[in-house]
């Protein structure tokens, strides 16, 4: 019975951590929205991932846009170099 209090204390500490970090609130909101769905999705876990992972979707989109920007910047450098070569050739 003496081991019960430390475990309970760790649980309580972890619960406070989840509460402070907003995890409990976010999970509650997602579960409530799932509960209020008139037609329940076939895959509840996927629903939770989609609605909870909103920021991860944005992270993926940001990464894709950053990659696209790098590609466009590289293409822009290439085109500038070609244009400079054409201008030099026209001057000669």
UniProtKB/TrEMBL annotation:
Subcellular location: Nucleus
UniProt GO MF annotations: transcription coactivator activity
Family matches, as InterPro entries: AMY1 (IPR026060)
GO cellular component: nucleus
Chief place where the protein resides: nucleus
Keywords: Coiled coil, Nucleus
Coiled coil: 55-92
Record family assignment: Belongs to the AMY1 family.
Protein name, entry field: c-Myc-binding protein
Record organism: Microctonus hyperodae (Parasitoid wasp)
